[in-house]
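User: For my dataset I need records formatted as: sequence, then structure tokens, nothing else. Please produce one.
Assistant:
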Amino acid sequence: MRTVACNIGRSAVVLDGMDLTDAQWAVLEPTFRPRRRPDGRGRPWIDPRAVMNGVLWVLRTGAPWHDLPSRYPPYQTCHRRFQLWQRSGGWTGSSNASPRTCETAGRSI
């Protein structure tokens, strides 16, 4: 497994081959765009790609949420967003379509 370090904004991120590629994220991004309140109030959402990578790490490894590595957003954020995506139907739609589409866009998730 190849490890690549890259800087995104102010923080360094280590990609260990488990994170989404740019091509895969391009397919999934429209479904998981952050939503803001109409009045603009509230805290801005953490990058949905980073959250998605955290969720996928937990689902791939079968580890408990609190064992999520520190390179991902807090486990509470990833778990809460996963629940939100499940309730809204975004996760179901993307999980059915994404393996085929993402495989053609890069590598299989």
